[in-house]
3-hydroxyisobutyryl-CoA hydrolase (Seriola lalandi dorsalis), 382 residues
Amino acid sequence: MSLTALTSTYRLRSLCRLQRIQGHMMSSHVEPDVLMEKVGRAGVITMNRPKVLNALNLNMIRQIYPQLKKWENDKETDIVIIKGAGGKAFCAGGDIRAVTEAGKVGDPLAQDFFREEYILNNAIGTCRKPYIALIDGITMGGGVGLSVHGRFRVATEKSLFAMPETAIGLFPDVGGGYFLPRLRGRLGLFLALTGFRLKGRDVQRAGVATHFVESKKIPDLEKELVDLKSPSAEDVTRVLDTYQTQSSLDSEKPFVLDKHMSDIDRLFGSGSVEGIMQNLKADGSEFAKKQAETLSKMSPTSLKITYKQLQAGASLSLQDVLVMEYRLSQACMRGGDFYEGVRAVLVDRDQNPTWNPSTLEEVSEQSVDQCFSSLGEKDLTF
């Protein structure tokens, strides 16, 4: 082969290789995890990881927080709207797998994620501008933290709410210790311990959402909110109330827990998790049996931490609750149940965790109290 032919073959190969690389770069053009745009006088945040149900990662937290603060202080921005892309989820929770991997090897992500997530939860709770979360889909764990502390939370028939953390050796964090004990009666404790799922209109009836609007009306609702001229919180309320009035879907169905509310208050009214279990077993009703069965699958340590968390949180400010929860998060990173729970539920999916300790009786008061102790200079500060 002549030198010219060799050279052109070489160049052709290089060109093909370059095209392959460029093609790969084009095909792996990464969509941003979160979109932030100004629409009229509204700041709109869209969680944009639909393939993983908009699971919240540290990168998203680090983009949302400064933008929220900027909009809060910007004279040209009147309201903030937060929603999820893809039509299935608002946000199905925090990116827990990444946190477990980090925790196992002592990577700082296991601290940074919780710290920065809780600081964002507090910023949402204290936001001076009307903050409207459109929870049109799955909203669990970290997704609840991005919505429930805001002034307005709009549920639809596609909403699915739960705080399922006791099943993975964690506890209902992101300010769960603040909003759960403030739901009526013992409902919050029931939801926290069992991870019970609320759907559609029931999310509003429980007090987790402020409004219920049919999913098909959400685009019109959003447009109307964006078009408001210098709205007050009352103006936003008026618009949401109007849309709620026009949404009659499922309005004739009673709240799913209606017939159980007095049972929940009675059975979950005990002074300890062991007491609750005894109440449930002694009751003998179908409902009580089902709850006892659910609780028997949860991490005993998580159940006891959660009970104490809600008991304490009932009389604390959101900020103080988040300081407490940060201590608890780091205790869970040091323990074993969190890693085992994530393995059983999210990684191997055998749904068969081996908790340690394996019974409520073996979880000492002292070990629970230790989870709540100060981390000194490593405590969460705002």
Observations:
- The radius of gyration is 24 Å.
